[in-house]
Write a structure and sequence with these properties.
This protein has 232 residues and is an alpha/beta fold. The protein is built from nine helices and eight strands. Helix 1 packs across helix 9 (211-230) and helix 7 crosses helix 8 (173-189). It is globular, with a radius of gyration of 17 Å.
Length: 232
């Protein structure tokens, strides 16, 4: 049965896509605060699935085994938490290992369809900003505002190293670059919902921009779009 693309919400949806290290999480959280929107971190959902499968001793690249494990996996994102089967795992999933794991399980069709359905259900009737890699191109093709952030590969890696250092994890820029290159190739090549800008997405290079500058640009576009929508 084909996977139907349908509008599942009545609120305003803003999507912010792009590879790791472009500033999606920082930008999305602050933009949501400024606009009074809610924030949906879809990457956390994939990391939680990877953690659940890993705990079961299932190889993340084994599609059949991962698919068989999914009925026992339940992920929720209440404010400030990532709840996996009743346990808040937010502090456990921000590791390089689970970032790779998220990319590995995300190529499996059953995982993607399960989480896409959950993402659509979570936004019903709500003003929401969603960050990820396929939000504007696949999950919410009718979203009113779509953004795709890009940045120089080394700058992205340096940002990620800084984030991990702040969390007490030490990794090299070179190691992060290798991981992100591998993940970018995998995410861009997957059969279902590959990472790519939606045709109508605003593409913004954040290499030489501060987070504040990125947020202000996106905020202006969203506010203008919302004003136009209200006057139609």
């Amino acid at each position: 049965m084909p996977f139907l693309i349908t509008q599942y919400f009545t609120g305003m949806i803003v999507t912010i896509d792009g590879p790791s290290g472009v500033g999606k999480s920082t930008v999305t959280k602050e933009l949501a605060t400024r606009l009074g929107f809610e924030y949906l971190n879809t990457g956390a959902m994939y990391r939680a699935v990877a953690l659940a499968v890993q705990r079961l001793g299932v190889r993340l690249t084994d599609e059949a085994a991962v698919t068989a494990a999914l009925p026992g996996v339940h992920v929720e994102l209440p404010p400030g938490c990532v709840v996996l089967n009743g346990e808040n795992v937010a502090h456990l999933i921000r590791t390089p290992e689970l970032s790779r794991g998220a990319s590995e399980v995300s190529v499996h069709r059953a995982v993607r369809l399960m989480l896409v359905a959950a993402q659509r259900a979570a936004t019903t009737g709500r003003d929401m900003i969603c960050d990820g890699r396929d939000q504007g191109s696949f999950v919410f093709p009718l979203a009113e505002c779509k953004f795709f952030l890009i940045a120089d590969a080394r700058v992205r890696a340096e940002r990620r190293v800084g984030e991990l250092a702040a969390a007490g994890q030490r990794v090299s820029v070179e190691d992060v670059m290798r991981d992100q290159d591998e993940r970018d190739r995998r995410d861009a090549a997957r059969e279902l919902a590959p990472m790519a800008p939606a045709p109508d997405a605003v593409i913004l290079d954040t290499t030489h921009l501060t987070s504040k500058e990125v947020i202000e640009r996106l905020e202006n576009i969203v506010r203008d779009q919302r004003a136009c929508s209200r006057h139609r």
